[in-house]
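A student in our group prepared the protein record below, which I am reviewing. I have pasted the whole thing underneath without changing anything:
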Amino acid sequence: MTAVLECTGITKRFGQLAAVDDVTLTIDRGARHALIGPNGAGKSTLFNLLAGTLRPTSGRIVLDGRDVTGKSDAWRSRAGLAKTFQHSSLFQSLSVADNVAIAAQRVSGDGLRLRRSARSCPDVDRCVDRCLQQTGLSERSGSRVSDLSHGERRQLEVAVALATEPTLLLLDEPTAGMSAAESDRFAHLVESLPKEVTVLLIEHDLDVVFRLASRISVLHLGRLLADGPPADIRADEQVQAAYLGTGATEELFLPAVGT
């Protein structure tokens, strides 16, 4: 299996503090890969390094075979990397469909205009309809973003990301603030994404992580503590110690029933 993203020796220092310290990581094409760790582990910093909103102090990042270490977040977006952040960046006063259309127009080269009729802009409208269907928002297409629930806004952020036709989708704490029902719907959404879209999920909800991930990487104090399939991460004593020291429950790391 070929890698869609490779990080080699990534380090980010803020003065004397190494927020990310010599991290080497590979994300396989088509994977559902989770990045976890206790608070302060460096997850958000690493996310921003991968997304291009921060530059590493040292190390190398390769996206789909191209060295993007010095490239901007906009360049990486055009190269196939899409992302959602902890804090929403949606246009609150516009409709659900218009938010997706703006992203689709960037790809189509149609120009940043509000959604027109399908007759005058068929490619963008087809993309909007497809992305809303994939994320369960077809019935909310005409609603203003400000009228959506928190969970629906998270779904819309994924729809906007999908409209850019990404190869790699980065999700930063997507279920933060969600109810149990909203988290379940969001997990189902990720499960239903096309296999050609690789997903890197940074997530605090370990139930969601172990439900979705085919591989898990664990950060602790800025360094990569463990990396492997979920069963190995559950059984890793170093991972258990890192989490149990922050109040996580032991049951999350016990083998699943029947395994």
